[in-house]
Amino acid sequence: MPSKVEAFPASSVLISFPICPFVGRARIVVLEKNIKLEVQLIDLENKPAWFLERSPTGTVPALDTGKHFIFESSVISEFLDEVSEGSLHPEAAADRAVNRAWTEYAAKMLVAQFMMLMSATQADFETHKSTLIAGLQNVEKAHSNQPFFNGKDFALIDAAYSPLLVRTKYLREKHGIDLLSDLPQLRAWEEALNDRASVREVHGVEYFEHLEQVMTDRASMLLQ
């Protein structure tokens, strides 16, 4: 594992948007590692010029350490892990590689889930739902069948999947849509993640209020 060669800059700022699941990943790691930093929200519909000048992707999260501007949620999460005490990554290189691969795989499911939540028509909803379920079925096969992805210990990959499984619980409990009915390992993982203090803090009442406001603004069929 990389050595911690520099202290985490105390003036660092995590540039965020309230309901972005990729931001959620990084914020969970911040809480798990007890890192102190400022969270700065921006409007993704009206991104500030200073942000677009510094971010080549124009996406959140981004981490401004004062000296470096770091983007992409998985990269930010690994950086936060490396510059703080302990590690949320497996010890073996092969295990870390597997975790990184499945973390990358989650991205398309997060996008499909967001599009599903925002769908204005049943046809669009079903298209994105099918994409999401196919992805979840593959993750079910790779899961450890223990509380977390690798086993008994919470890891970076668990932070990466937490926003996805917070929203599967929301869809089931609020809208009666059970995406995990045939996926018992993911159902147990969903429960373990939603019980985690860091996950609950990131996905509090205000999070769901903001999510449903965005769904309303986009005429989501789920709120019709």
From TrEMBL:
May I have one GO cellular component term?
cytoplasm
**What Gene3D superfamilies does the annotation carry?**
1.20.1050.10, Glutaredoxin (3.40.30.10)
Boundaries of every GST C-terminal domain copy: 92-218
MF terms per GO, please? transferase activity
Which key words tag this protein in UniProt? Transferase
Q: Which PANTHER family match?
A: GLUTATHIONE S-TRANSFERASE OMEGA, PTHR43968
The entry's protein name is Glutathione S-transferase family protein
Native species: Tritonibacter litoralis
What broad taxonomic lineage does this protein's source fall under?
A: Bacteria, Pseudomonadati, Pseudomonadota, Alphaproteobacteria, Rhodobacterales
